Amino acid sequence: MSTPLSGTSAAPAHIPTATFELGSYQAAVDAQLQAFGTQNFTERFWQKDATLWTQDAQAQQSIRSFMGWLRVAEDLQQAVPDLEQFVAEVKAAGFSHVVVMGMGGSTMAPIVFRESAEQGPNGLNMLVLDTTDPGTIQEIEQAVPLAHTLFIVASKSGTTAEPLAFGDYFYARLKEIKGERAGENFIGITDPGTPFVATAEKLGYRRVFLNFPEVGGRFSALTYFGLVPAALYGLDVREILTRALHMMRACGANGPAENNPGEALGVALGVLAQAGHDKLTLLVPPSLSSLGLWMEQLVAESTGKEGLGILPIADEPLASADYGLDRVFVYVGYKGQSDAANEQLIKQLREKGHPIITILMNDVLDLGQEFFRWEVATAVASAVFGINPFDQPNVQAAKTATDKLMKAVEEHGELPQQPATLAENGLTFYASHAGAAGSAAELVKDFFGQAQAGDYLSVQAYLTETPTVTGAIQQIRAAVLNSRHIATTAGYGPRFLHSTGQYHKGGPNTGLFLQLTADNPNDLPLPGRSYTFGTLKNAQAQGDLEALHHNGRRTLRVHLGADAAQGLQTLLALVPTR
Ligand SMILES: O=P(O)(O)OC[C@H]1O[C@](O)(CO)[C@@H](O)[C@@H]1O
């Protein structure tokens, strides 16, 4: 890559346009592009030359074995007739609904497809389950006609606790209805040879799609993990893949350097992050509001390690005052479609001199192209940092802590209790840095008072997702953004553990973590286990808190009591607004 990048990229007409307004950082970005050109970066990238990322021999081996995503869209194109036939078979069998069950990369693309695109005329109603929260599981159970619902257990490793638990739960429910024929309502997506393949066969699953071992979870949007659900939802997967292949060629070794959309984006993001602009603030029209979930997982879990990283900031309320200087704003929207609120904001950001990148898609099927562009960009930004984008070392720490806690539950019947810092008005507080706070108001004030320029707030909600709860969390974010001027993120647990969770523990120590928990009034038993979904969720929260402490992070857990919405209002009243 040798041609300097500036202004609008001269990509072929069928590629969504990208515009870079990088101001004083343009020179550094151009210099990095020049350096990559001298190193023959593009060709080596496509040849899976792991020395582009690291000099560590073991890490190089792992990198080489996880670059199958580069060409996997070609394999999937061959599989389209089979996918179409499978959808026809499922419809002929009388299914009307599909529930996709999995974590992180195994469900993020289906969430984006479902939230961003209309259900196709021949599609099934689709829901996604990616939480151990018993309230949400019950909602899903009540929202679908069980006998006419196809359940997808999606797990690359075939060992992740959550999807296996979801599968067991719904299989037991189906067994009550269909007896030995329960397996007809289940399919699996997993890698060849995982323990789950044997389980699925034993239980008589309708089908198991064997995925590609050389594709990691967060790079799997354009594999069976993204495309089986997309096809069942009635989307034109052939067209999604055709467009992904356009992007693949534009990012390919033989394309002209200035037209390489993935490298252009990756170099810009990498260089900006190194210069302190490490909060990738995503702006989207309402119809693309879930894109941030997918991007968080891809970018944060890939880059957030060794004290480095890029943190996506998704769905943030608008700031009433100036943003900090740690931001790069990325707008992803549609060509020719007005988006007045974001246009107005971008105008102000431009006047203030913030770096801004704008990507305009033609329609929703261009997501196929964007998935590929962002995958390349993430790998390229990681090369700028010199880190392995394909591992997630710190996710395991939280999982291990949770496993240990679950063992204690099996032995003693309950989770070990944590000593509280203080309790007031129905809320219980557990602070990592308690100081001398004598009241809840002081404690909360002290917690947010730690915020410095460049820090971020992470609200971690192990709660049932509802509009009211989300609204209250957004109010907390707005108060902190406007009073402390730091970037704010929010995620429902345990979903975010498989996404931004890596960055929280492995990235820079700039996070303030507000963990929210509540009672589980309508808990659900887990078939074959001595514990409930609620206990598992509590152990995941506690395990992650331990992992955060182990990494010296600043945390405040607030247990909201029996009524999460009510508890959030009480907490909100304590959050400083100035
Ligand atoms: O598909 P699996 O193996 O169940 O893993 C789910 C998710 O968990 C992680 O391995 C770790 O969070 C993600 O990278 C992955 O997408």
UniProtKB/TrEMBL annotation:
The record's annotation in Pfam families points to: PGI
SUPFAM superfamilies tied to this protein = SIS domain
Write the Enzyme Commission number(s) for this entry. 5.3.1.9
Query: GO CC annotations?
Result: cytosol
Which pathway features in its UniProt record? Carbohydrate degradation; glycolysis; D-glyceraldehyde 3-phosphate and glycerone phosphate from D-glucose: step 2/4
GO MF annotation list: carbohydrate derivative binding; glucose-6-phosphate isomerase activity; monosaccharide binding
Task: Tell me which Gene3D superfamilies the record gives.
Answer: Glucose-6-phosphate isomerase like protein, domain 1 (3.40.50.10490)
Cite the entry's keywords alphabetically.
Gluconeogenesis, Glycolysis, Isomerase
Biological process annotations from GO: gluconeogenesis; glucose 6-phosphate metabolic process; glycolytic process
- List where this protein forms a coiled coil: none
Q: Which InterPro entries match?
A: G6P_Isomerase, SIS_dom_sf
Its UniProt entry gives the catalysed reaction(s) as: alpha-D-glucose 6-phosphate = beta-D-fructose 6-phosphate
Q: Which domain of life is it from?
A: Bacteria
Belongs to which family? Belongs to the GPI family.
This protein's name: Glucose-6-phosphate isomerase
Which species expresses this protein natively? Answer: Hymenobacter busanensis
